[in-house]
Specification:
single chain, mainly alpha, Substrate Binding Domain Of Dnak, Chain:A, Domain 2, 5 helices, 0% strand, elongated
Length: 143
């Protein structure tokens, strides 16, 4: 799993603050996306650690961990990872979902660390409508 995204390493243009003292709309959006991905990464890591401990016999194999283990055996994404309060909906099998998650985090990370990209991968966002709103606000404020 990739490391969590670090706001402290953000490119100055990504989280730029206007003269009025407010962060630019696209900066607010990418920060919210970063927080959502970090929350999902923390969940995945903690559940993987718990499962490893259960397999080793150092913690009790709960029903939740057994369901996760069975999902792995069947090549499916565990349901808690797809819960919309933490994850994003997907019909992909486990391997494709992990590859997709890594690619999404890489895209958001490049935006965060290298500055706004020239083009955007809309389907990589948790909340693409928020991106469209932030884009319209940015355009309206520049004109």
């Amino acid at each position: 799993m990739p490391e969590e995204l670090d706001e402290k390493r953000a490119h100055p243009e990504t989280l730029r603050v206007t003269e009025a003292g407010a962060m630019i709309s696209l900066g607010v959006f990418v920060k919210q996306e970063m927080e959502r991905f970090n929350k999902l990464l923390r969940l995945v890591r903690s559940r993987l650690r718990e499962l490893i401990q259960a397999i080793d016999g150092t913690v009790v194999m709960s029903q939740l961990l057994e369901d996760q283990f069975n999902s792995f055996i069947n090549g499916k994404v565990p349901l808690p990872w797809l819960d919309t309060s933490v994850g994003y909906p997907s019909l992909k099998p486990l391997v494709s979902w992990v590859n997709d998650l890594v690619a999404r985090i890489r895209f958001i990370g490049q935006w965060l660390y290298d500055g706004p990209p020239k083009s955007y991968w809309l389907s990589s966002f948790f909340f693409p409508q928020g991106f469209m709103t932030a884009t319209m606000q940015t355009y309206a404020r520049e004109t």
